[in-house]
Design a protein that fits this description.
By secondary structure, the chain is mostly helical. The protein is built from seven helices and three strands; from the N terminus they run H-H-E-H-H-E-E-H-H-H. 60% of the residues lie in helices and 7% in strands. A three-stranded antiparallel beta sheet has the order 1-3-2. The radius of gyration is 18 Å and the shape is globular. It starts with 11 loop residues before the first helix and ends in a 15-residue tail after the last helix.
Length: 166
């Protein structure tokens, strides 16, 4: 992909994309050891449920996909024990989707993987450089107007929620 990396040193977007691919591949491989049924696209749904159960329509709106797409993913994840459907306490006609204990464990494993990788990067590069890189990337998100999406857990996949096998 990058024939002459030294010519691309000022291409932040390229390096971020490459690093994201490497880190995603590593994180998903490690996650698969404990949770082999979890796929890349599932993480977007899980992020919607971290703070508690939500209605399918709300999740779909947050992720910019159809309710049918979310319902399909919910059925898949429900069948393997990661999510469950719940009755809303406010309106018995409304069904919510929430993480099960297994789903919460998958989220925790992902967090643990990120924590370990951050520690490895701090060891390899120095904690000040890693902290500075993190701040630079947050500033870049801010410059692109994306921090409200990040804070609200509404970052959408660039590829949609089609499961590409990642």
């Amino acid at each position: 992909m990058v024939a002459q990396p030294e010519l691309q040193n000022k291409d932040l977007v390229l390096w971020v994309q490459l690093l994201a691919e490497v880190l995603n591949r590593e994180a998903l491989a490690e996650l698969a050891q404990a949770h082999p049924d979890v796929r890349y696209a599932h993480g977007f749904l899980f992020q919607q449920l971290v703070e508690g159960p939500r209605a399918v329509g709300e999740i779909a709106a947050n992720l910019g996909v159809t309710s049918q797409a979310i319902s399909k993913m919910v059925r898949e994840l429900e069948a393997v024990g990661y999510v469950e459907r719940l009755v809303s306490g406010e309106d018995a006609r409304v069904r919510l989707v929430g993480l099960t204990a297994r789903g919460s464990d998958a989220v925790q494993v992902s967090r643990d993987v990120r924590s370990r990788v951050n520690a490895e990067l701090a060891e390899a590069l120095g904690s000040e450089r890693v902290e500075s890189a993190g701040k630079t990337l947050r500033d870049a998100l801010q410059a692109r107007g994306a921090m409200p999406e990040v804070r609200a857990r509404r970052v959408r996949s660039a590829q949609g929620l089609k499961d590409s096998g990642r």
